[in-house]
Amino acid sequence: MSYLRNPRGPRAQEPRTPAVRRRAPRARKLLAAAVLTLLAVACGKEGSPPVKGPSPDQLPRYEVRAGFSLPGSATWQRAKQRGRLVVGAKEDQPYMGEKDPATGRYSGFDIEIAKMISASLGFDPASVQFRTIASANRETALQNGQIDYYVGTYTINDKRKKLVGFGGPYYMAGQSLLVRSDEKDIDGPKDLDGKRVCSAAGSTPYQRMAEDYPRADLVAYDTYSVCVDNLLTYQVDAVTTDDTILMGYAAKVPDEMKVVGTPFSKEPYGIGVPRGDNALRFAVDDALAAREKNGDWQKAYDVTLGLSGRKATPAPPIDRYPAS
Ligand code: GLU
Question: What is the model's pTM?
Fold first, then answer.
């Protein structure tokens, strides 16, 4: 995973008070180095499947809808001419969207959702070209046609609906907290006053922390995996985002990190499509409904997110809002 190899510096916002940053004592630094090595091993050597993850032949096969056509969708027409779909995703979120650096293969629940929709739109799921897009860049990527749709822990909300369209929802997550396993003082967002908390720029959890918990010392990076590096090296005290994502990191190294408290928001996951392409949005809704009904959704869940130990909550009802 990218964060094991290549931790990057802060992008979205420099830590605000580097002068008061706690220096990790030598023993802690050694522990952190050991943990990073452990994570590298846990995440598999290059080319190997993620720990506990399914091998490709265990993944569900999604039947491709033959003769499907969507003349009302400019996005679909372009993909048809190209011969494949280009889909935005995450690459560093275990069990949701993860990229094997050696093979370039993406895996996880979001990736399976993207593939089943591709099959329903008449494209071979194996032909989907995934492109990693960070939280802060999703709307722009959809607006400028870089991707046909986006599947990556993407919360549906009214503000975003002004910029993009959303199929779904296909899952309900909730904001939570990830801390080191020896942490005793943090059990919920009320305990974060004066604590260093990390999240991703452009995300709803970052926004909520900034607005509702202004006494937390909040920093933002491009990705959550950089936040996790910072947690393991004692640069921050907690990472906050959706429980789905945090449980994935914790499941990789359960001895070092834990998810605490109860989720304190509702994050309905949608499939981002270009705004105004209502034909595509409705086709995505139809695809999801059909794949939930025929059991593909559940099969996909069981071999991905289900492996993180998270119980399947049924998919929330699809919100087929009027053409916009
Ligand atoms: N679901 C939240 C969001 O869409 C957090 C996860 C993410 O950044 O992808 O902002």
Answer: 0.88
Index of the ligand 1 atom closest to the CA of residue 267: 1
CATH classification (class only), 56-173+266-308: alpha beta
Q: Do domains 56-173+266-308 and 175-265 have the same CATH topology?
A: yes
Average pLDDT score, the chain: 87
Question: Residue 166: left (phi > 0), alpha (psi -120 to 50), or beta?
Answer: beta
Domain boundaries, the chain: 56-173+266-308, 175-265
Q: State mean pLDDT over 171-178.
A: 97
Please say if the pLDDT value at position 251 is more than 60.
Answer: yes
Q: Do the Cβ atoms of 168 and 271 come closer than 8 Å? A: yes
Q: Tell me how far the alpha carbon of residue 26 lies from the centroid of ligand 1, in angstroms.
A: 35
For ligand 1, atom 9: residue with the closest CA: 153
pLDDT digit string, tens, across residues 11-65: 333 333 333 333 344 445 544 554 454 444 444 333 334 445 677 778 899 999 9
- The bridge status of strand 149-150 relative to strand 217-221 is unpaired
The response to whether residue 200 sits with its C-beta less than 6 Å from ligand 1 reads yes
222 lines ligand 1 (CB under 6 A): no
Q: Is 230 in the pocket of ligand 1 (CB under 6 A)?
A: no
- 175-265: CATH, from 3.30.420.10, 1.25.40.20, 3.40.630.30, 3.40.190.10: 3.40.190.10
Q: How many CB atoms lie within 10 A of CB 79?
A: 24
**Which of 95, 245, 269 gets mutated to test ligand 1 (max ligand atoms within 8 A of its CB)?**
245
In angstroms, the CA 298 to CA 231 distance is 33
154 pocket-lining for ligand 1 (C-beta < 6 Å): yes
93 CB less than 6 Å from ligand 1?
A: no
Q: Which of 2, 251, 225 is nearest to 102 (CA)?
A: 2
Instruction: Tell me if 153 CB under 6 Å of ligand 1.
Output: yes
